[in-house]
Amino acid sequence: MSGGAPVPVPVKGEDAVVLCMEDIKERADANLPEVARDFFNSGSTYQTTIAENSSAFNKYRLRSRVLIDVSQLSASTTCLGRTIKFPLCISPAGLQGMAHPDGELATSRACANMGINMAISSFANYPVADITSAGTGNGEGGGSGGVHYAMQLYMMKDRKLQESIIRAAEEAGCKAIFLTADSPVLGVRYNEWRNDFRTPDGLAFPALGLTSEMIRRQTHDAGFMAFNDDSHNWERDIAWLRATTKMQIWIKGVMTAEDTELAIRYGCDGIIVSNHGGRQLDGVAATLDALVECVDAAKGRIPVHMDGGVRRGSDIFIALALGAQCVWVGRPAIWGLAYNGQAGVEKMLSVLYEDFKRCMALCGCKSVAEIGRGCLRRMGYDGVLRRVE
């Protein structure tokens, strides 16, 4: 692919001292141009929500256990109809070609080699068929296979174009649609306006039928509003999707009990508790803080996943203890790409996997099914730690 990011070249032996997400982000930031770094890392307006997505995990403490045999510990779980290595998958994140020339192809191969699933953005820089082929072992340099993919969609003014995206996703083997439902309008991201952000030359959006030349005529904000349908609604649009495809329909962007109930009422297959990585409405709750409300409303009637702010294996553990069946990460995948392409994404996933397994072992959990609210304490307003019930 022409355009996009230069290929990063890690210092020899450097990977051995990349031990945590902060190390990966630091190296990614050093490799990215300022405009790209601002685009990937920033949230909307005053960036309160993006900060709280991560800090929310610090309200909890783990309850470690002793003298429990964890020699046969398994971190595996199921997601989108397949067993995955651990309960973490890659969120739909656009413009991955701005982080590394191989973009979504590298991410797909990394997911295959690490045994997890991936969601593909409508703003991906490669065709969906190429992305899925990269992960199923059919493409050049393809991964070890087995990835189940979801296709992220917005409701669009042009339903023929939207249907063409759905058909391409079906033909590429995607198992689900992730309908991003939190974006009737785009959040205000000050850095994009200050930088007059435009997609770098050479990067296209094949799913949307947009070439690089077409994209660069508009700002990112104007381009989004040109196709997005701000009249989207539950009754009309879920019915239209059901009539159009047999793929699962998941709603991404649910933050309340009311919307959880509506997702169930309209027959959706799952929800993802998400605030768009803090890039939409600043001042909404951290996703972890909204998770319990949605889990309690779901009452086991619908799968509840979560994204936003996960940076450590213990974060995965806390989210699962509060009721999420799986968590998804976006920016960490971008940082892995910018650090070292496919190998960087695999390094990021390995860091989270090993940290999560260690957390399970030290909390005495031999399987994901044993992780529950009783594994946590929460700091009260009075400064006293109390077991979560």
Topology diagram in text:
Blueprint (H helix, E strand, L loop, with lengths): L20 H11 L2 H8 L6 H8 L4 E3 L14 E3 L2 E3 L3 E3 L12 H12 L3 E3 L7 H9 L12 E5 L5 H13 L4 E5 L9 H5 L17 H4 L4 H8 L6 H11 L3 E7 L2 H9 L4 E4 L13 H12 L5 E4 L5 H9 L4 E4 L1 H32 L13 E4 L5 E3 L2
Helix pairs in contact: 1-14, 4-5, 4-14, 11-12, 13-14
Structural Rg: 20 Å
- Global shape: globular
The main pleated sheet reads as: 8 strands, parallel
Spatially, the strands of the biggest sheet line up as 4-11-10-9-8-7-6-5
What's the β-strand tally?
Answer: 13
Keywords: Flavoprotein, FMN, Oxidoreductase
Organism: Vermiconidia calcicola
InterPro entries: Aldolase_TIM (IPR013785), Alpha-hydoxy_acid_DH_FMN (IPR012133), FMN-dep_DH (IPR000262), FMN_HAD (IPR037396), FMN_hydac_DH_AS (IPR008259)
Active site: 276
